[in-house]
Design brief:
With 515 residues, the protein is α/β, with parallel strands linked by helices. Helix 2 crosses helix 8. The structure holds NADPH dihydro-nicotinamide-adenine-dinucleotide phosphate.
């Protein structure tokens, strides 16, 4: 098997007329396909259900992008059974053959790149470049995990003792459940599904209710790539129903979850209970929310800081787990920095995602309500110096919003809003900055803009996050380059896109023979 060295895909920014034309064509073609029905996929069979979940366009919620079949308990039972049946053979496929199947899937994703981007523009309101970054990350996960999986065929070195032969080797766990969020509807679903599959597990995947169509596209690709029936099963449905059922199911071997802290805690608790007939401890991987902070000190390049803050706070409308939602700034540079931040944020264009604005809509009516509620709370807790309104029209559009003078313990400085809302906290010095930065229950991403080597080195050790960035934006982790995952209540630090990720889905067996 020939393997090209892994390199992250370049992210298309649509600067040339050719690339813009390609996207306009893809958007038109995808629009032609609105309103189709997408089945469940269980053991390779396409299963329609009575009930259907409409997936709408957040830029224009009257438009139905597609309808997904809706799984319940009996379909969940069938999907787990199909996954265990497929496991019997998939676990014994040569690793090269499994990896080759993934590489083929990555190849098909590249072929369908513009189309996949267009689906995300419509289904979740990403602008073109955000959608391109999502597809590029999905391709990266697929290639990276296909390659990483090859290393587990090597047996770990052991210490030899006289009179015995000892060996250890890695084995897949079995059939697991993947529960994904809507905010990286292709990349995260792909990574969480194909990681375990790469090393011989099988999976039942429950995509988020808001993004079942892009999930269906991933499954079309897996089928075309030749992934055997039952290795990946698709079960869209309500999280609190089919998701919860899968979590507590005795046949679920592991749970790979990305989503909110609230749901993650429930899953952690339910998965710890031994269901009747269950004969293992479920492995649970939880990648959860954040309240991510950027610190700016008086030595910083303020222009670079303002750019990094605005990119991190408002990219995809602030709906990234890594988004900057707290700006912690030293008093001495507060006014100069805020002038530049406000200036940049004010210029952001908000509009329908298909027109490729800086900011599209927030994802759903539920997100709209949450963001609106926190903006009202913010008006009590801070001084609104930019935005603070939902825009007119049927799409879920908000102005980029900034609250200044926010106390470190204010709700808008502690709770994840997941929208285009930035809370600014002033501090007297760098000690206080680090204390405030660490003063939440989360620990996902963080950043520091400073020219002080000593402070950067201190932050390197003391800033309690899974992903820390100096003098750049805090979003946009690349697969293989910045393994991603939080600490504290931001998750189990699974480190998606990292060199150890696949180990989570393997167990080691040691065999001893006495001579
Ligand atoms: P949710 O926690 O609301 O939902 C995530 C998934 O869980 C969805 O598929 C949902 O289904 C399902 N679900 C809901 N309730 C249950 C339940 N009781 N049992 C099992 N499954 C359930 O998160 P969002 O989709 O709103 O995603 C945003 C969140 O994800 C943010 O907090 C964000 O920070 C976090 N996130 C974390 C990342 C990380 O790497 N740390 C990366 C990306 C996002 P349904 O859609 O039907 O409700």
């Amino acid at each position: 098997m020939t393997v090209e060295p892994y390199r992250p895909q370049p992210i298309e920014t649509f600067q040339t007329p050719e690339k813009r034309q390609e996207m306009i064509r893809a958007l038109a073609e995808v629009r032609q396909q609105f309103g189709r029905h997408y089945p469940l996929i269980i053991g390779g069979e396409k299963v329609q259900t009575q009930a259907a979940i409409p997936s709408t366009n957040p830029s224009n919620p009257a438009e139905v992008v597609g309808y997904a079949a809706q799984a319940g308990a009996s379909e969940a039972d069938a999907a787990l059974e199909a996954a265990w049946k497929a496991f019997k053979t998939w676990k014994d496929w040569p690793q090269e053959a499994r990896s080759r199947t993934l590489l083929k899937a990555a190849h098909i994703m590249k072929r369908r790149q513009r189309e996949l981007e267009a689906w995300m523009v419509y289904e979740i309101g990403k602008n073109w470049t955000e959608a391109a970054a999502d597809v590029a990350e999905a391709i990266d996960f697929t290639i990276y995990y296909a390659q990483q999986a090859l290393k587990y065929t090597a047996k770990p070195p052991l210490v030899a003792v006289p009179g015995e032969d000892n060996e250890s080797f890695y084995m897949p766990l079995g059939a697991g459940v993947v529960i994904a969020p809507w905010n990286f509807p292709l990349a995260i679903l792909t990574g969480m599904t194909l990681g375990p599959i790469a090393v011989g597990n099988t999976v039942v995947a429950k995509p988020a209710e808001d993004t079942p169509v892009i999930a269906a596209k991933l499954f079309e690709i897996l089928e075309e790539a030749g992934l055997p029936a039952g290795v990946a099963n698709l079960l869209p449905g309500h999280g609190s129903e089919v998701g919860a059922y899968l979590v507590s199911h005795p046949k679920t071997r592991f749970i790979n979850f990305t989503g909110s802290l609230e749901v993650g805690l429930k899953i952690n608790e339910e998965a710890a209970k031994l269901a009747p007939g269950q004969t293992w401890l479920k492995r649970v991987f939880l990648e959860l929310g954040g309240k991510d902070a950027i610190i700016v000190d008086e030595t910083a390049d303020l222009e670079a800081a303002a750019l990094g803050i605005v990119q991190s706070a408002y990219g995809f409308q602030g709906q990234k787990c890594s988004a900057c939602s707290r700006l912690i700034v030293l008093e001495r540079v507060h006014d100069d920095l805020m002038e530049q931040v406000v200036e940049r944020a004010r210029k952001l264009v908000v509009g329908p995602a298909e027109e490729n604005p800086d900011m599209g809509p927030v994802a759903s009516e539920k997100q709209e309500q949450t963001v609106a509620r926190y903006i009202e709370i913010g008006k009590e807790e801070g001084q609104c110096i930019l935005g603070g309104h939902r825009l007119e029209g049927s799409g879920y559009f908000f102005e980029p919003t900034i609250f200044d003078g926010v106390a470190p313990q204010a709700r808008i400085a502690q709770e994840e809003i997941f929208g285009p809302v930035l809370s600014v906290i002033r501090v007297p010095d760098f000690d206080a900055a680090l204390e405030v930065a660490n003063g939440t229950r989360f620990g996902l991403t963080g950043g520091v803009f400073s020219r002080s080597r000593e402070r950067l080195e201190r932050a390197r050790q003391e800033f309690q996050v899974g992903n820390l960035y100096f003098n750049r934006k805090i979003t946009g982790a690349l697969v293989g380059v910045q393994p991603f995952g939080g600490s504290n209540l931001s998750g189990t630090n699974t480190k998606a896109g990292g060199p150890d990720y696949l180990m989570n889905f393997l167990h080691m067996k040691s065999v001893t023979e006495r001579f």
